[in-house]
Automatic annotation (TrEMBL):
Similarity remark: Belongs to the class-III pyridoxal-phosphate-dependent aminotransferase family. ArgD subfamily.
EC number: 2.6.1.11
HAMAP family per record: ArgD_aminotrans_3 (MF_01107)
Upper lineage: Bacteria, Bacillati, Bacillota, Clostridia, Lachnospirales
Chain positions found as N6-(pyridoxal phosphate)lysine: 252
Protein name according to UniProt: Acetylornithine aminotransferase
Reactions this protein catalyses: N(2)-acetyl-L-ornithine + 2-oxoglutarate = N-acetyl-L-glutamate 5-semialdehyde + L-glutamate
Subcellular location: Cytoplasm
Gene Ontology BP annotations: L-arginine biosynthetic process
UniProt-listed InterPro entries: AcOrn/SuccOrn_fam, Aminotrans_3, Aminotrans_3_PPA_site, Class-III_PLP-dep_AT, PyrdxlP-dep_Trfase, PyrdxlP-dep_Trfase_major, PyrdxlP-dep_Trfase_small
Cellular component annotations (GO), alphabetically ordered: cytoplasm
Organism domain of life: Bacteria
Keywords, sorted A to Z: Amino-acid biosynthesis, Aminotransferase, Arginine biosynthesis, Cytoplasm, Pyridoxal phosphate, Transferase
């Protein structure tokens, strides 16, 4: 079947919630994808910042196959070894206290919100607390996650959503202060805003929010779903600032392609929030997903993935800065590590993404006018050169 027929057949049965690009991918190898007609693409999108190890990274597939042969699911009524190992590695990498595994980023957000609410409920002896979230944030599509997502267009059709949510401006400490009341139990934000257009938190802002939270016993939830797992050159972006969250959410690259997320609590919240019966999941933490998480951490350590990102970041930034300097429509670059955005002006960013696809380079957009570059973390200088060459043609 040719690609057009495959796309038509897909639209016949799959609910049309995405305007997909006209390509059917068949397999991947390294940092390349191949469509069903055998054409090769350089992947600087990584399945939206998920495939940090690219495709068929040495040791990864083998670990998954081994786990399939043993056990894929057992429920949370029993213990399983991969969950124990994955939990220990996640807690160790974050220097936090306890982890709860979920199936997605959205579910990690749900759990984080519940943990914060429960903490305040135990402390105050009553519910009805408020949460402060950021404008232009993205935390997911479920009702709870949508309630703290700072995008009116995503939220409006589904209102009324969860009550008690107030929005402040990211990187504006005064606007956060203005939303704090006696009822505030949590402040939630991405350490680096992703979907909203690749905005890293400013140091003074993050430190200021942390100080506010300490002063008023407010839970700081940092969403590391996109910017975590090495993307900024640190396991978690907040480690670059030395500002610790009370709760952190992970997903995307946590399993490098296997659907898995987690929320991770510091000791204070872990000891005084969710208790048996308060939260649960059938699939979450299943041995198959956790075997992936466990192997991902092993590979990151063995092959020094964080060091690689740190070493190559200046080169990636230099190549992108050259494009910004050269092309009128590329207005600015911002980002951290391998999470970079180029602001596109005077033409739709979608047009640049489409052109790149035609030239066999995968990049994506963020916000209304940002070209998002979130490659696998294992790219080489040569891959960066090739990306820059193609983008150079696309921006011309
Ligand atoms: C992708 C994303 C989510 C949602 O994760 P899903 O796995 O799609 O549910 C939440 N927060 C951030 C920052 C994300 O990038």
């Amino acid at each position: 079947m040719n690609m057009n027929n495959q796309m038509e057949e897909s639209e016949a049965s799959i609910l049309h919630t995405y305007n997909r690009f006209p390509v059917v991918f068949d397999h991947g190898e390294g940092v390349h994808l191949y469509d069903s007609e055998g054409k090769k693409y350089l992947d600087f999108a990584a399945g939206i910042a998920v495939n940090s190890l690219g495709y068929h990274y040495p040791g990864y597939d083998e670990a998954l196959k081994e786990q399939i042969d043993k056990l894929t699911h057992i429920s949370n009524l029993y213990y399983n070894e991969p969950m124990t190992e994955a939990g220990a590695k996640l807690v160790n990498a974050s220097r936090m206290d306890k982890a709860f595994f979920t199936n997605s980023g959205t579910e990690a957000i749900e759990g984080a919100l519940k943990a914060a609410k429960k903490y305040a409920y135990i402390r105050d002896g009553h519910a009805d607390h408020e949460i402060i979230a950021m404008n232009h944030s993205f935390h997911g599509r479920s009702i709870g996650a949508l309630s703290v997502t700072g995008n009116a267009h995503y939220r409006e059709p589904f209102e009324p959503l969860m009550g008690g949510v107030k929005f402040a401006d990211f990187n504006d400490l005064d606007s956060v202060k203005a939303q704090i009341t006696d009822k505030t139990c949590a402040i939630i934000m991405e350490t680096v805003q992703g979907e909203g257009g690749i905005y890293p938190a400013e140091r003074e802002f993050l430190e200021g929010v942390r100080a506010l939270c300490d002063e008023k016993d407010i839970i700081l939830i940092l969403d590391e779903i996109q910017c975590g797992m090495g993307r900024t050159g640190y396991y978690f972006a907040w480690q670059a600032y030395g500002v610790q969250p009370d709760i952190m959410t992970c997903a995307k690259a946590l399993g490098c392609g296997v659907p898995v997320g987690a929320f991770v609590l510091n000791k204070k919240v872990a000891q005084a929030s969710l208790k048996p019966g308060d939260h649960g999941t059938t699939y979450g933490g299943n041995p198959f997903a956790c075997a992936a998480v466990s192997k991902v951490f092993d590979i990151y350590e063995r092959d020094m993935i964080l060091t690689h990102v740190q070493e190559l970041t200046p080169y990636l930034e230099k190549k992108l800065d050259e494009l910004v300097a050269k092309h009128e429509c590329a207005a600015a670059r911002r980002g951290m590590g391998f999470m970079q955005g180029i602001v596109i002006q005077g033409r739709p960013v979608g047009e640049v993404v489409k052109k790149a696809l035609e030239k066999k380079l995968l990049v994506i957009s963020a916000g209304s006018d940002v070209l998002r570059i979130v490659p696998p973390l294992v790219i080489t200088k040569a891959d960066i050169d090739e990306m820059a060459e193609i983008l150079d043609e696309c921006l011309a």
